[in-house]
Amino acid sequence: MSPLTPTPLTSLRVSKYHIPAFHNFPNTSLRPYPFMIYHSAYPSSLSASSVEKHLSSVGIVDPAWRFPMYRQHHYHSTVDEVLVVVSGSGTLCFGGSTSNPNKVQIDVGKGDVMIVPAGVGHAMVEDKGSFQMVGSYPKGSENWDMCTGQDHEKDTTWETIRMLGWFKGDPVYGDEGPSVDAGKDT
Questions:
Q1: Which of 17, 120, 150, 184 has the most CB atoms lying inside 10 A of its own CB?
Q2: 28 phi-psi bin (left φ>0, alpha ψ -120 to 50, beta other)
Q3: 76-119 confidence digits (pLDDT tens)
């Protein structure tokens, strides 16, 4: 069992966004699942290893990397992604471009969790100091890609995104949690 306890669901503040397609970034236009932010889902006492242990104990995702975030706008067509800020803070852009009028540009900090559906463009705009995240993908997802909005990607990746399933539970909370019913409130 994980020693890290997330914020109780009754106290969790969640922001949900549906981001329309922008140029060659499908964002949330292909499936009913929103981009979500769980604000301060973990206590400030977290560490990268405690987050990895907690996510592994819940059993919905497998932690895959520790890194800030690429500055190049990109999306994944083969997997949904869970990002947990484990140190510092930063400004991130979701939507494929800072010029997208429907982008979600946010400041995130230690303890914030982002649920990023396949297709949602994302990039780091600014590292505000010691910014690092743990990135995770659904259990059994061994091949994730990195698409950058090139013209040819639309023909090969958008149908892949349409066909994807969703998390088998909430990556942070398990059988309950915001992502469990995410596609039902659209």
A1: 120
A2: alpha
A3: 999 999 999 999 999 999 999 999 999 999 999 999 999 999 99
Which of these, 17, 148, 23, lies nearest to 76 by C-alpha position? 148
CA proximity to 48, closest of 170, 136, 139, 132: 132
Token pair listed for 50 = 């405690």
Tokens read off for 57:
């104990």
> Do the beta carbons of residue 170 and residue 182 sit within 8 Å?
no
CA distance 135 to 113: 10
CATH of domain 9-163: 2.60.120.10
Phi-psi region of 52 (alpha: psi -120 to 50; beta: other; left: phi over 0): alpha
Burial of 96-118, coded b for 16+ CB within 10 Å and e otherwise, reads bbeebeebbebebebbbbbbbbb
To the question of pTM greater than 0.85 for the whole model, the response is yes
